[in-house]
Amino acid sequence: MDELALIGKKISKIRVKRGLTQENLAEMVHYSANHIAKLESARTNPSFNLLVNIARALKIEIKDLFDYEDFNTTEYMKKELLNTIKNSNDETIKLLYKFYKTLNV
């Protein structure tokens, strides 16, 4: 996962943990909810000022936005795999299963 995607996931995770919607966060940082959605899904690059404002709004230090350790846990990986399977169509599930079978686990 690239840095932009990790930042977006981190913002989303903390925002949800704080009980905020994308709209709430957008209002707090004076951006549109659409911009926050694009940021969280890695479809736009955040400015440094936006990251500073987001950190303030989420009541965290800016360095916390770059701490991705929680994305390296097996619990997180299991959750991501299950979500991927749950949200996949039949064709994708068949491809995932074929890949799984090649692992010889």
Please specify the SSE layout and strand pairing:
Elements: H1 3-17, H2 22-29, H3 33-40, H4 48-58, H5 74-86, H6 90-102
Helix pairs in contact: 2-3
Descriptive account of the structure:
There is one protein chain. By secondary structure, the protein is mainly α. The chain folds into 2 domains: 3-66, lambda repressor-like DNA-binding domains (434 Repressor (Amino-terminal Domain), Orthogonal Bundle), CATH 1.10.260.40; 73-102. It is 65% helix and 0% strand. It is built from 6 helices and no strands. The protein has helices at residues 3-17, 22-29, 33-40, 48-58, 74-86, 90-102. Helix 2 crosses helix 3 (33-40). The longest helix has 15 residues, at 3-17. The radius of gyration is 16 Å and the shape is elongated.
Explain briefly what this protein structure is.
It contains 6 helices and no strands.
Overview features:
105 residues, mainly alpha, 434 Repressor (Amino-terminal Domain), 2 domains, 0% strand
